[in-house]
Amino acid sequence: MMAILLDGVVLGLQLAVLGVGISLVFGLSGVLDLAYGAKIVAAAVVGSELLAADVVPWMALATVVVVAAGLSLAVDRTVLAPVHRRVGEARVVLSLLVTLAVAFVLDGIVVSTRPLAALTLVVGGAPVEVLGVTMRRGSLLAAGVALAALVVAFVLLQGTRLGRAIRCVIQDVEGAQLCGIEPGRVRTVVVLLSGVLAGLVAITQGLAASVGTADGFDLTILAVVVAVVGGLGRVGGAAIAGVILGVVHALATATLGASGTWVVLLLAAVVTILVRPEGVVGPGGWRLWRHRAPGSAPSGEMVP
Amino acid sequence: MLQVRELCAGYGQLPVLDRVDLQVADGEVVALIGANGAGKTTLLRTIAGLHPATSGDVLLEGSSLRGRSAASIARRGLRLVPSDRRLFPELSVREHLLLGAHPHRVGREDLRTVTELFPRLAERWGQRAGTLSGGEQQMVALGRALVGRPTLLVLDEPTTGLAPPLAAELYLAVERLGERTGVTVLVAEQQLPRVLALADHGVVLEHGRVRRRGSAAALRDDPEVRRAYLGVG
Fold it and tell me: How far apart are CA B223 and CA B210, in angstroms?
């Protein structure tokens, strides 16, 4: 049981990164990126080719991140440009169609050029015992990288002026403009950040197992489920939902098998929309502490 | 400070502003008066860069604002507080105030000025804006605009939806602010007595055109203005 739980946490941290990546862009612009998994796969395939060509591993992995970020920005600036000029439902529906088309194009390119490519990152050394469970070093490193990515993303979003600007644009574009924030620049940063997270998912998946050319749609569906359970567009919610769903995934796989796991995950998304559309954490899930006004006494009050 | 020259704007084929001219001098409080649908909000949104002008120009301290983004206009010191406030429901009062001087850091002195003007904000410091009352939200919107040390503060019906005591408190704060910082204010309002008590000058807008302008005292005594906006005379 402990082994299943630990596997679930390792997967969950990766799902959290996946969910945060897709939620950032959806929260900011209403674009649900159905090509998110395809970008991860494309970046992973580039990484596997570089490693096969004996490129230094750190450089190959850095390239994976750069390719994912570059692909995200390129798609946003070209085929998604007309989508950003629409508002409301038209934008959402158009973004689904356009990103789905991008997913098919990327998938087609990858499958037709490198059908057997897969990013598998082998970490040497003996397995490590954690809470009485023997775990591969690759899995632990994947969990560490995912956790570090989440912490950096949180510090960026919560503790910096840029992060505050991003959250403002996510909540109210016009309000942000009135504060002197350029939504276009913020969108560029967010798209790049989402792309960087996609690259990191490729790396963590490669460390924990493998990323192959057939994994794109599975990754996209997982990202969408995590984003929905986290409360669409709520980045903090997506992070927590990812970890929860990772454990659910591991438990369901052990008891129901692969098909049953997909049913459970999709059911979780459906139930969330019906029962708690604001997501597992809800609207207050962002802030972890409360600040004092200048000159006032410390309240010591924690935000729930 | 602000010059609006022959400004025209509309929505699609529907013209709303018709060659509006307006001047606001340094340190002045100018009231923009008009009934619902007169074009006040469109005028203020066009000045702030949130709505495109079809012709005419807006100059802030001698520089044209045409073609500039709303964010760039805000960074130049023209801060609009819209009637719907445009707050960020999930951000705290503190976070709103820290945003006011974006991309620069907000000084502690500026935060203190705002909390002295609106002591209630200090009590709600860590509270999310979405959970505040209407009056408190208006204070946050004003405070957010003030911490950026605006050269021109533009207020669109700041007392909309507020109970009379709160509206009076808000106007008192704007008055104290003017005395304290000398900030220039352009304020649109339907509540004639209140806004003319605060303003140096006034401009009456009707159907997108300037119908009258003059000192606040002259407009207060103008029988036509009194009849149209106070129902007396």
Answer: 17
Cβ neighbourhood burial of A222 (10 Å; 0-12, 13-18, 19+): buried
CA distance B17 to B117: 35
Chain B residues with beta carbon closer than 8 angstroms to that of A290: 92, 125-126
How do the pLDDT tens digits run along chain B, 233 residues long? 899 999 999 998 898 999 999 999 998 999 998 888 889 999 999 999 999 999 999 999 989 998 899 999 999 999 999 988 899 888 899 989 988 877 778 888 888 888 888 888 889 989 999 899 888 899 999 999 988 888 999 999 888 878 888 888 888 888 888 777 788 999 998 878 888 888 899 999 989 999 889 898 888 888 887 777 766 65
Where are the domains positioned within chain A? 7-122+129-214
- Of the candidates A164, A171, A287, the beta carbon closest to that of B98 is on A164
Q: Tell me the C-alpha distance between B146 and B1, whole Å.
A: 17
Q: Which residue of A has its CA nearest to B130?
A: A283
Token pair 């000192």 is found at B215
What CATH number did the domain enclosing B180 receive?
3.40.50.300
Nearest CB to A175 within list B87, B94, B126? B87
Q: Per the domain annotation, does B173 fall within a domain?
A: yes
Q: Domain count of chain B?
A: 1
pTM for the predicted model, two decimal places: 0.82
